[in-house]
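Summary for the steering committee. One of the milestones for this cycle was to obtain a three-dimensional model of the protein with magnesium ion bound, which we needed before selecting residues for the alanine scan. The sequence and ligand used are listed below.
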Amino acid sequence: MRVFKFGGASVKNAEAVKNVGKVLQAFGGEEVLVVVSAMGKTTNSLELLAQAYYKNEPSKQELFREVKHFHDEIISGLLITKDSQTYADIENLFIELDCELENVADSNFDKVYDQIVSYGELFSSRILSAYLNESGIKNRWMDAQNFISTDNTYREGKIDWDYTQLLISQKLKPIIKKQMVVTQGFIGKNKDNFTVTLGREGSDYSAAIFAFGLDAEQVTIWKDVAGVMNADPKKYPNAIKIDAISYPSAIEMAYYGATVIHPKTIQPLQSKKIPLYVKSFIEPEAKGTLVGISKELENLPPTIISKSNQVLISISSKDFSFIVEDNLSNIFTVFADLKLKINLMQNSAISFIVCLDNEPQKIEQLMYHLNVNYNLTIKEGLELITISNYSENSLKELSSGKSILIEQKTEKNIQVVI
Ligand code: ASP
Ligand code: MG
């Protein structure tokens, strides 16, 4: 059994959807589960839509029409006719969404968000499934919410692993044995029967959850890049593709901010030793990258991961006490309560410096709490660069002309804030 995940870029217009058909024709075959994301940037549009309805903004109906129009164009580009069952199914989904939007005001926003934003994946999976069936790639559409069971953490659902595994292996597996199934990434359902999403870009994670439950032989994430690269090719034209990488190195790359694979994806695969291939849907014959178990995979080139929009906060105590155990524990408690993730930290006797993603609201609260006992200074608009397997040259090249505010080295990694 194999799991294929297609992201938003792979279904961003009718031509792209047709290309997914070609990839499945060539590489699909028996016992395949297809997990698909929302088309193009639909999730962003639905986020705006949810907000607009929640706040009753005048733009709300226009936004709804835009989302509908975008999908209608794709449907007509795929020559799905208006009197077909498919067209009716999708039309019905839009009516459901419309009704859902009428009731948004009296609930908490995160819950509303999930009920609305999840439609992106429902639309894309319906359209893809119908198109594939019409072009002879027989498949069955299924709702991922029937299998992925979560807690009530809206927008960042935590998986109930035992129950999810049971549902996938008992209810979904027998169906995939008979025919290809098309389902959605990103969404699950809680015990109260409400949709819960798994966090932005969570479709990779869904693919891994399904693979875990199915004891799949492999997962392939089909992307618009050749595989996992050693740097972002948009920023670094000399970036090269990595042929193979071990699970721990892939987890580390995701942790430092590489966006090619969602950070939560690797763990379920690693625990069942399921290999992950990252391949290009533009050049599907090319080899791509294998993420797997072998130690031989560790011979990596220097990898460069950069995170922009960083802030540096320097914290020192007002009473000039050392920043050691007591103070650190107070400071960390505030970070943990606000769920603020520290990307890099460094401390000296009387100060403590942290680098974080710029989340203005949370940082304002952080300042408010820490201001009581500490002096704080803050610098915005910075970049955090992590180089693994670094050489002094690679660092010089990257930071040339920019001042390095913090530098931290281990045997394998170097991190700088510039
Ligand atoms: N459509 C969702 C998002 O854009 C999930 C995904 O693409 O992985 O965040
Ligand atoms: Mg997406």
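Key point for the committee: The CA atoms of residues 71 and 123 lie 8 Å apart.
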